[in-house]
Amino acid sequence: MSTSLRSIAGNVAAGAALLFLVLPSVAWAQTRTISVEAGPIWSQSDAAKKCPQVAKDNRGTWSGGWRTTVPGRMSVCDIRLSPSKEIRVVEPIEAGPIWSQSDAEKKCAEVAKKNAGTWNGQWRTTVPGSMSVCEIRLSG
Predict the structure, then answer these.
(1) Beta strand 131-139 with 88-96: parallel, antiparallel or unpaired?
(2) Dist CA 81 CA 91 (whole Å)
(3) Same domain, 20 and 35
(4) Which of 1, 77, 129, 130 has a CA-to-CA distance to 27 between 20 and 30 Å?
């Protein structure tokens, strides 16, 4: 075989090997996984109760993964989203100070309306006396 034919054959083999490496990543790119706050999760059995609902609220499926981000206060569930579906993500949005549940019901409804979303009923104080956040379900 001539040198140029060996070179072409080697390039074809390398290209075929590269194609096999690229093809799986194309399939994986069809879904993406995001982490969504779920409040405190205390155990795997607690996650099995909470995370499927968090996934449903965000039009995804729970991957089975979760982790604590703030011990005793906040955990996140890993949610798989399909690009063919409308993505709805729950985001914490600042609302100023919230003093009580009844105050949250007023302020979070306003924050949701201003952000074209819906309040999921969750809120928390981030800076005592100064700032709280409402969890708002946004369309993306």
Answers:
(1) antiparallel
(2) 16
(3) no
(4) 77
Residues 140 and 92 in one domain: yes
Q: How far apart are CA 41 and CA 55, in angstroms?
A: 15
Per DSSP, the three-state class of 116 is coil
Strands of 131-139's sheet in order across: 88-96, 131-139, 117-127
Domain that holds residue 71: 31-85
Record the tokens describing residue 66, joined without a space: 């979760």
Looking at the DSSP bridge assignments, the partners of residue 127 are: 131
Q: Is the pTM of this model over 0.70?
A: no
| 20-60 pLDDT, tens digit each | 444 443 444 456 788 888 999 999 999 999 999 999 888 88
Q: Which residue has the tokens 């798989």?
A: 80
Closest-CA residue to 109 (of 124, 125, 120, 96): 120
Q: Domain holding 137: CATH number?
A: 3.30.1490.230
